[in-house]
Amino acid sequence: MRIATIYTILAMIATAANIGAQDLVIRIYNGPVSLILSVITGTGVGLAVKFILDKRYIFAFQSKNLSHDSRVFFLYSITGIVTTLIFWGSEFSFHLIFETKEMRYLGGVLGLAIGYVTKYHLDKRYVFRPEAT
Prior knowledge:
This protein is mainly α and 133 residues long. Helices cover 84% and strands 0% of the residues. It has one domain.
């Protein structure tokens, strides 16, 4: 139960970083590709924040060197592809259905929540296992 609580808190931090980065991009640039640019930026920020938090507080990962850390980040990013599809699908669906930024962000938060639960299991099995690291 302790790990679930910590993971939830860290997921909320990464979600806030993601949605915050999206909102910042929209505030700075409101052109023809602003929506996709904001979602891509938020995804990148959220991925980096979540990796740093997960490797330290969830999986207690210690890299041997920068090359090792880079390989693990690559694996982490690969598992993130599946969860990103869940997140983007939810966010863009809410955007198309409700046509407001608030509902788009709600769709993003819901998609991230589902994606993070899935990602934990993928990371535990494929990324941060002793043989892979």
